[in-house]
Design a protein that fits this description.
The complex is a heterodimer of chains A (90) and B (378). Chain A is mainly alpha-helical and 90 residues long. Chain A has 2 domains: 33 residues; 57 residues, Cytochrome Bc1 Complex, Chain D, domain 2 (Orthogonal Bundle), CATH 1.10.760. Chain A is built from 5 helices and no strands. In chain A, helix 3 crosses helix 5 and helix 4 runs antiparallel to helix 5. The longest helix of chain A is centred in the N-terminal third of the chain and has 20 residues. Chain A is elongated and about 50 Å long. The termini of chain A are far apart. By secondary structure, chain B is mostly beta strands. Chain B has one domain: Beta Barrel (Porin). Chain B is 8% helix and 55% strand. In chain B, the strands form 2 sheets. A 16-stranded antiparallel barrel of chain B has the order 1-2-3-4-5-6-7-10-11-12-13-14-15-16-17-18. In chain B, strands 8-9 form a two-stranded antiparallel ribbon. Chain B is globular and about 70 Å long. Chain B starts with a helix and ends with a strand. About 2% of the residues of chain B have low confidence. Classes of the chains: A mainly alpha (90), B mainly beta (378). The interface between A and B is large, with 51 and 63 residues.
């Protein structure tokens, strides 16, 4: 069991690193074209109910965005778009 | 395994340097850029327990957790959580529990990498780091074995971590690797997780990788590995004794038009293995005993919220969870719990939870409990 789990984990780690060090860290065109509101709708309900844009001020959304990017391991690009959307719609 | 980790950290460092080059020194750390958020949550737990024809009701705990987040610049952030709780400890007695839940400094090196240092929620699996706060956990109790007193993993850890999210075509990967003091081996072979002053030189190394294979981010599957030296250095019996935790987690959340609402499925499996060692029942026991020190636990949870409904019904949520623990013999009695819940959401982060829980402890007659939690996100 221990060997298997270590192997699964090692392979996973290798894929992440390979993706980061090659130029593989790019989103497909369809993903890159997603709007902030769509990304908000898809991502912010994965762990808790999604807060509506009116819940916070612009400055607070910037803090929340950085907090969630770290907590939820969101990609920087999607976080930036979501925060822009929340700031424009509050 | 440790070699893999060190190699990883080295590679992450290289990636960091590369990213720094690429981005130049653009920093927005000008005066007046600090942004601050004071948030957190308050809660009240109450229960009625039924066993052997008797029932007992109690208001168990009430607490208030303050969360402070400072965004100092686009690269620097600090997050801290301070909790204060009044816990009932027998008739007419209350204990006040004050704790630093986490305090973590965060430096964002590049799009794909940030470093943290401090005290942080354990990233093994997802329950502890992402789902345990009372306004997020959809049920009144934590899954036995993964959260709460019987958990088979640390709740928080103190050390360093590196993490990030990486787009990969239509999919996304995310990772975290960390180094901490790790757990300590107790005299009966169980692990103690409050090891702020390390009992050995060997640090704990952990990692989790999450994959979101679909472009709509609805599904995530994660694998975690954690390896630590838990025995005390120089101890006649336990020097060098190690422990390993493996975890699998999954998360599927999606608005399903055919069901007129949001379906939310979550789960986690933890397997804990401590190296073989000889344990003693007391100072007069010269013989000692050994056992296969492997334990495991899992839970699976399904929730449905009719978001397309109107009025009162729209704020309701139905939740069911099954959780089971299989302890190494001598460390505990196996048990499973079925929890069914009805939630009423007052807003996105405030909820009233009403749960029924059936507890089956191996070799005993089952017990039931009604649990009520009011959680109020701030």
């Amino acid at each position: 069991m221990k060997k298997i789990s270590t192997a699964i984990f090692g392979i996973g780690l290798f894929i992440v690193l390979a993706a980061m060090l090659s130029n593989g860290c790019t989103a497909s065109a369809a993903v890159a074209e997603k709007s902030g509101s769509q990304l908000w709708g898809e991502n912010c309900l994965r762990c808790h109910n999604s807060p509506s844009p009116g819940s916070f001020s612009d400055a607070q959304w910037e803090v929340v965005g950085m907090h969630m990017e770290s907590r939820a391991n969101l990609t920087s690009d999607e976080t930036a778009k979501i925060v822009e959307f929340l700031k424009s719609a509050n | 395994m440790k070699k893999i980790y060190f190699l990883t950290l080295l590679l992450l460092g290289m990636q960091a340097a590369r990213a720094q080059d690429a981005e130049g020194s653009a920093d927005s750390n000008d005066p007046g850029n600090t942004k601050f958020l004071l948030t957190g949550y308050a809660y009240l737990d109450a229960s009625v327990a039924f066993a052997g024809g008797e029932s007992q009701s109690n208001i168990d705990e009430s607490g208030f957790n303050s969360i402070f987040v400072w965004k100092k610049s686009d690269k620097l952030m600090f997050e801290g959580e301070y909790e204060v709780a009044a816990i009932s400890s027998g008739y007419g007695k209350w204990a006040t529990d004050v704790a630093l839940e986490y305090a973590s400094m965060n430096y964002k090196v590049s799009k794909y990498l940030s470093f943290q240092a401090g005290k942080f929620l354990s990233p093994i699996g997802t329950f502890q780091e992402r789902l345990h706060p009372k306004w997020i956990n959809k049920l009144a109790s934590a899954p036995v074995g993964i959260g709460g007193a019987t958990r088979m993993q640390p709740g928080t850890e103190i050390g360093f971590s590196a993490r990030g999210g990486v787009p990969m075509g239509g999919a996304k990967l995310n990772y975290i690797v960390w180094l901490s003091n790790g757990p300590v081996l107790n005299a009966n072979g169980s692990l103690g997780y409050k090891n702020l002053a390390d009992n050995n030189k060997g640090k704990a190394l952990g990692g989790r990788i999450g994959l979101l294979p679909f472009s709509n981010s609805s599904f995530e599957i994660g694998v975690s590995e954690y390896t630590a030296t838990v025995g005390t250095d120089g101890d006649q019996y336990y020097d060098g004794i190690g422990a390993n935790i493996f975890a699998l987690d999954f998360n599927f959340v999606k608005q399903v038009p055919g069901l007129k609402g949001i379906i939310d499925i979550k789960g986690q499996y933890n397997a804990l293995k401590v190296d073989d060692a000889r344990y003693f029942t007391g100072p007069t026991d010269t013989q000692g005993y050994t056992f296969d020190n492997s334990s495991n636990t899992y839970y699976a949870q399904l929730a449905y919220r009719p978001t397309s409904a109107t009025g009162f019904v729209k704020n309701l949520e139905l939740v069911g969870r099954y959780a089971a623990v299989d302890f190494a013999e001598t460390l505990g009695t196996d048990q499973n719990r079925l929890t069914l819940g009805l939630n009423y959401w007052l807003n996105w982060n405030s909820v009233v939870k009403l749960n029924f829980e059936n507890i089956d402890v191996s070799g005993q007659s089952s017990e039931q409990a009604l649990l009520v939690v009011v959680a109020f996100g701030l």
